[in-house]
């Protein structure tokens, strides 16, 4: 990636059972029927855990996006995607190609950003699949009370009180 290029980051909606596996490091490939291409290596994917959690709970960096025939995705990424064969083929019914998004640098956020906060702070309604996010979204999450637990050695920044939301898990 050239220095002048900046990755366009995403907010993706994922079911809670898969989010838990991503944050635990078990699931390293996210599957999608549609995804924009090309995507730069290092693009950040903010992870929105769908109902009943309904919050942004972490993020990962894209290592690679592969557009492949469905059978090839299963052959190459079934274990890393942490889905059953039936779930996989049910999800991809009616499509010939899909996307395997290889994730790295996964971080759980210290404090969740709820769906209502997403809308109030950024005017964002959680997407069905994915949506682009703004630089303002990135900067507030990267430097705000939502930062990851290991980003700083102190549990809160400069003595600021916690925002009142629960822990990540």
Write structural notes for this entry:
With 169 residues, the chain is of the alpha+beta class. It is built from five helices and six strands; from the N terminus they run βαβββααβαβα. A six-stranded mixed sheet has the order 2-5-4-3-1-6.
**Main structural class:** alpha+beta
Extended strand count: 6
Strand content of the residues, in percent?
25-35%
Proportion of helical residues: 25-40%
What profile does the largest beta sheet have? 6 strands, mixed
Radius of gyration from the CA trace?
16 Å
Which strand order do you get reading across the main beta sheet? 2-5-4-3-1-6
Helix-strand pattern, N to C? EHEEEHHEHEH
- Give the mean pLDDT: 83
Task: Give the termini distance in whole angstroms.
Answer: 35 Å
If helices are DSSP runs of H or I spanning 4 or more residues, what is the number of helices? 5
Described by the principal axes of the CA atoms, the overall outline is: globular
Task: Name the poorly predicted regions.
Answer: 1-5, 148-169
């Amino acid at each position: 990636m050239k220095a002048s290029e900046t990755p366009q980051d995403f907010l993706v909606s994922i079911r809670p059972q898969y989010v838990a596996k991503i944050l635990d490091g078990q699931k390293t490939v996210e599957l999608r029927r549609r995804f924009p291409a090309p995507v730069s290596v290092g693009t950040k994917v903010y992870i929105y855990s769908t109902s009943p959690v309904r919050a942004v709970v972490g993020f990962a960096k894209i290592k690679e996006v592969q557009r492949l025939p469905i059978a090839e995705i299963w052959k190459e990424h079934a274990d890393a995607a942490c889905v059953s064969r039936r779930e996989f083929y049910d999800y991809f019914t009616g499509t010939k190609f899909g996307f395997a998004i290889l994730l790295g640098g996964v971080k759980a956020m210290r404090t969740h950003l709820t769906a209502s906060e997403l809308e109030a702070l950024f005017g964002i309604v959680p997407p069905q699949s994915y949506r682009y996010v703004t630089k303002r979204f990135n900067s507030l999450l990267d430097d705000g009370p939502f930062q990851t637990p290991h980003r700083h050695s102190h549990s809160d920044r400069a003595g600021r009180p916690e925002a009142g939301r629960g822990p990540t898990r």
